[in-house]
Amino acid sequence: MDIFNSKYKRLSGSNYREIKKRTDVLFAESRRRTKRRPYLRSEYFRKEKIFLEYFEEHLRQKNFFDKVRRLRFLPAAIELLKYSRNKPEISENRHRTGEKLYRFKGKTSDEYIFFVQVKENKKTGQKFFMSCFPQD
C-alpha cells in the first residue's frame, strides 16, 4: 500500500473545543456547496462523490479523547480523499456482505502516519467517508 504525503500538519490544540472549531470550518465549506448531503469528489474513484455525513455520526459515538485524536487528522484526510491516486487496501465487510471497505494510508507533513476508511455500498455504489485515525 502506497503512502500519500499530505501538505497539512496535524491540528494543534489542547482540547476538543479548540479542534472542533477548526474542523467545523472544513465541513461548513462542503455543506455550502450543496443544498443536499455534503460530499467531496475523489481522484481515486474517478471523481465520484464521497459523502461526509457518516463521519460526523461515527464521531458522536466516541469519547472526547478519541474524538480529538481523530479530528487532528481531518484536514490531511480530506486532502488524501480528494487527491490521492494510490491504491488502498480493499476488503469485504465481515458484518455486512453488501459493503466494501477501502483503507487509504497517508502521512502528514509533520511525519505522522494515519489511515482513512471509506465504505462503499455495493448495491447503490455510494461511498461514505467513515473514519480517519492515526497509526498506533
What does this structure look like?
This protein has 136 residues and is α/β, with parallel strands linked by helices. The protein has one domain. The protein is built from four helices and seven strands, in the order βαββαααββββ. Strands 1, 2, 3, 4, 5, 6 and 7 form a seven-stranded mixed β-sheet that branches. It is globular, with a radius of gyration of 14 Å. The two termini are 17 Å apart.
Secondary structure: number of strands: 7
- Helical content stands at 25-40%
Question: What does the largest sheet look like?
Answer: 7 strands, mixed
Strand content: 25-35%
Order of helices and strands: EHEEHHHEEEE
- Computed over alpha carbons, the radius of gyration is 14 Å
What structural category do the secondary elements indicate?
alpha/beta
Can you tell me the overall shape? globular
Distance between the termini: 17 Å
Number of distinct helices? 4
Low-confidence stretches: none
Taking all residues together, what is the mean pLDDT?
91
Number of domains: 1
